[in-house]
Write a structure and sequence with these properties.
This protein is an alpha/beta fold. The chain has 9 helices and 19 strands. The chain has a 9-stranded mixed sheet with strand order 1-8-9-10-11-12-13-16-19, with no helix packed on it. It has an 8-stranded mixed sheet with strand order 7-6-5-4-3-2-17-18, covered by helices on one side.
Length: 340
């Protein structure tokens, strides 16, 4: 558990979620509470556009935690540059077993030193500088934060809102052994290592749950990374229901792929949310999100995508969720983002 002192807030402070996506690929989420606490989940940039960095710069805040859900390139590029927003209180969360010694050994041996290789090497070098207390590998039931928000001027526990942040994947009991064996089996000097590693990275993808509220009302935010069906099916039904039902905000997993099918696990009469957001992924193998999947999610709540339009090459969806009152959630759309 990361030690964190309680935070004092006022009526104007809100939960803010910025979902960043690009035309072809890329996903990043910036989560913040007022100007007092911020977490970044994954990173991506285009060579001429780095929206994650711009949003952080505009907030003029340091990063409290950075969660690297998995090492696919569309969740990674630009992450090394975020170091400038670290301070002595920044914590890193990565999948369990991800930083195996074998992984680093192969990096150091590889001769295909393209810009992707260099990015991963920079990220691992930053992680090497962290002490044990600031570096966390996510297990299936890892708790990270438990602290309270208190209204300025309140006495005792009046106007207190509890904050809990925890991880719900990967499959922690098996993942380290699998990771080491997987790296050994797929590494091939004739193929760039990062292409091989991407084959099964979704098995490693970390998801986060953020709960903020009191006895009368709780806002639950579910950030799913690239959670896939294989991992979903290892979860017992009560766990799946606890995680994925009745969320204030849901990040639709794996760019709306059928391989990450929450609708398959719950009929849409049970799976409800206030808002959900989806990013895109385009490759020679096809285009995500799946229109069929989006149509199913739309039966459960209001859905936005970062790539509804096709003019700007990027999309940002900003959600502002009130903490201390019952005001409506505010949604702002930028670039190609829009409601489905």
């Amino acid at each position: 558990m990361i030690e964190k002192e309680d935070i004092f807030i006022d009526d104007n402070d809100k939960i803010e979620i910025n979902v960043v996506g690009y035309k072809k690929r890329g996903e990043s989420i910036i989560f913040s509470i007022g100007n007092k606490f911020m977490g970044v989940i994954d990173c991506y940039k285009k060579r001429d556009l780095f929206l994650t960095k711009k949003i952080i710069q505009d907030k003029k805040m340091k990063i409290d935690f950075l969660c690297w859900t998995h090492s696919d390139w569309d969740h990674t590029f630009g992450m090394a540059e975020l170091k400038e927003f670290f301070d002595e209180n920044t914590h890193i969360i990565v999948p369990s077993g991800f930083q195996a010694k074998e992984f680093r050994n192969f990096l150091e041996e590889d001769e295909n030193r393209g810009y992707q290789y260099e990015e991963y090497l920079k990220i691992l070098s930053i992680f090497d500088e962290l002490d044990y207390e600031h570096y966390h590998t996510a297990n299936q039931d890892s708790y990270y934060y438990s602290f309270s928000l208190r209204k300025i001027g309140s006495i005792g526990d009046s106007d207190k809102y509890d904050v809990k942040i925890y991880a719900f994947s990967p499959i922690s009991k098996k993942i380290k052994e699998y990771n080491c064996n997987h790296i050994k089996s797929v590494y091939d000097k004739n193929t760039q290592w990062y292409e091989n590693m991407n084959a099964d990275n979704n098995l490693f993808s970390v998801g986060l749950i953020i709960e903020i509220g009191n006895k009368s009302k709780v806002n639950k935010i579910c950030l799913t990374g690239d959670l896939n069906n294989e991992t979903l099916m290892t979860m017992k039904k009560p766990i799946r229901e606890k995680l994925f039902l009745k969320n204030t905000f849901l990040k639709i997993p794996h760019h709306g792929s059928k391989n990450s099918n929450l609708i398959f696990n719950f009929d849409n009469k049970k799976m409800k949310f206030n808002y959900a957001a989806c990013t895109s992924f385009k490759s020679r193998g096809g285009t995500l999100p799946s229109d069929t999947m989006i149509d199913e999610y739309k039966k459960c709540g209001i859905v936005h995508r970062t790539n509804v339009k096709d003019s700007s090459g990027y999309g940002v969806i900003k959600y502002e969720i009130p903490i201390m009152n019952d005001d409506e959630i505010q949604v702002s759309l930028y670039g190609d983002a829009d409601q489905c």
